[in-house]
Design a protein that fits this description.
The protein has 442 residues and is mainly α. Helix content is 79%, strand content 0%. It has helices spanning 2-6, 17-20, 26-51, 53-60, 66-69, 74-93, 98-120, 126-150, 165-200, 202-216, 220-238, 242-269, 271-277, 286-301, 305-310, 315-340, 342-368, 375-393, 401-422, 427-441. The radius of gyration is 23 Å and the shape is globular.
Length: 442
């Protein structure tokens, strides 16, 4: 959260990067400018962390003193998380969307897993674990910087002459609204956890967090798409190529919906097997998985609406939507958590995603007359529903939960995958599979 604020909204200027793009001139010092702004934001954060140290600790340490004990870990953690974001942003603008994703989603988690294994086997104490955990979070930043250097894209040369008064005003305006746009999702994503913790304590929060993680797995395909889509859509806005944006919008909706439904089917059809692996008290999180997953299906089904809006001249409206959403999230959680417990928090999260994406969809529809949905979206949902009914009603339960998971996952993959292919629901999926089949025949 702190690194999101410390970047001072400069990540929002990615929509303006096409005007900086010039390999011979090191993209007019865009990376250097990003580093300078982020460094200023980090200094500001450090001062605020020092001034409000007691308030921050009191807000988080009412149940244990761990946050107080390791409070100053926030400084290096924020610094390296911040600059990883800066380097990853720059790499994505240069069409390298893979490196940052791999380092953040795989490499860092692998290092953290190693530290967890050390403490699990009692090879280290908790204090040593925290130091190693911090190092595990720091390493990807150096690897990301090394990647930029090896590609010849790391330069801290400045080019302030390129930024005239008009461009400077636009960049400042973008940064201001990007602070709102960038921080709001982080706040919204944290509110349910904070409110569950306040209502039920750390144990229930742990159950909710683990269950919610299974739901967020559904977002992996869409998050990968957002990385590259932002760069392409920004270029299309610069060239006033609305038709290309419409095509990407339409394809993103059906492709993300198919992928999200497929992952949701795999998770929900095997949800009982998942809880056989986890301790008994985690069973309370079953419907957290369902509603969080449902919310992310809605989010995926609306495609790159957020990318289109935040990279357009109406980016300010997305900031207003985000701010309004904070209030909606708080109200829904206050209404539903007392009645339904942690499941209520998941329902609130799904409701928030529905309302937010409805606003974005209607805005793009009214302003740009872009309507991305076709009957194929409905067919994808019906196929998923049929696949689940067959899996749930007709496939007998195996005694071994590992075998049962394999059987159900195999059926879903074959039935849903072949149905999507032969009904030609996605031209991109069919083109990819046809290309693979040609290679297989050769």
């Amino acid at each position: 959260m702190f690194s999101q604020f410390a970047i001072l909204g400069f990540n929002g200027t990615a929509r303006y990067f096409p005007y900086f793009r010039n390999e011979e001139k090191n993209h007019h010092g865009y990376l250097a400018l990003a580093c300078l702004v982020s460094l200023a934001g980090f200094v500001l954060f450090t001062l605020l962390a020092f001034i409000f140290k007691d308030q921050l600790i009191n807000a988080k340490s009412h149940e244990n003193g761990l946050f107080s004990q390791y409070f100053w870990f926030l400084i290096p953690l924020t610094f390296f998380t911040l600059f990883f974001s800066v380097f990853d942003l720059f790499a994505r603008m240069l069409y390298d969307t893979i490196s940052g994703r791999v380092l953040r989603e795989f490499t860092k988690r692998l290092f953290i897993l190693l530290t967890l294994l050390f403490i699990f086997f009692k090879w280290i104490n908790f204090s040593t674990f925290m130091i190693l955990w911090l190092i595990a979070n720091i390493i990807p930043t150096f690897l990301m910087m090394k990647r930029l250097i090896s590609n010849g894209n790391f330069s801290l040369d400045t080019d302030f002459d390129f930024i005239d008064r008009d461009m400077g005003k636009k960049l400042i305006s973008i940064c201001f609204f990007a602070i709102l746009t960038g921080s709001a999702p982080t706040i919204i994503a944290s509110l349910d956890v904070y409110m569950v913790n306040a209502k039920f304590g750390l144990a229930e929060t742990g159950v909710y967090g683990i269950a919610a993680y299974f739901g967020t797995v559904i977002t992996l395909p869409s998050r990968s798409l957002y990385s590259i889509a932002y760069t392409i859509v920004s270029e299309s806005w610069k060239n006033n190529d609305l038709q290309n944006i419409k095509n990407i919008y339409r394809k993103s909706c059906i492709n993300q919906l198919i992928a999200a439904l497929f992952i949701f089917l795999l998770v929900w059809a095997n949800v009982d097997n998942i809880f056989k692996v986890l301790p008994q008290n985690y069973a309370a999180g079953k419907y957290v998985i369902f509603f969080i997953g449902l919310g992310y299906i809605i989010d995926s089904a609306t495609g790159i609406n957020g990318v289109i809006l935040t990279s357009s001249k109406y980016f300010k409206y997305d900031s207003f939507f985000n701010l309004g959403l904070i209030g909606i999230t708080i109200v829904l959680n206050l209404m539903l958590i007392p009645v339904y417990g942690i499941t209520g928090a998941a329902i609130a999260a799904a409701g928030t995603l529905l309302i937010f994406n409805l606003f974005r969809y209607l805005f793009i529809l009214i302003v740009y007359k872009m309507q991305p949905f076709t009957m194929k979206s409905l067919y994808a949902v019906l196929l998923a529903f049929i696949a689940y009914l067959i899996c749930h009603k007709l496939i007998p339960e195996q005694k071994n939960y590992g075998l049962d998971t394999f059987v159900r996952a195999s059926f879903i993959t074959v039935f849903y995958g072949l149905s999507v292919y032969f009904l030609s629901l996605s031209e991109d999926i069919n083109a990819y599979l046809n290309g693979y089949l040609v290679k297989l025949k050769k």
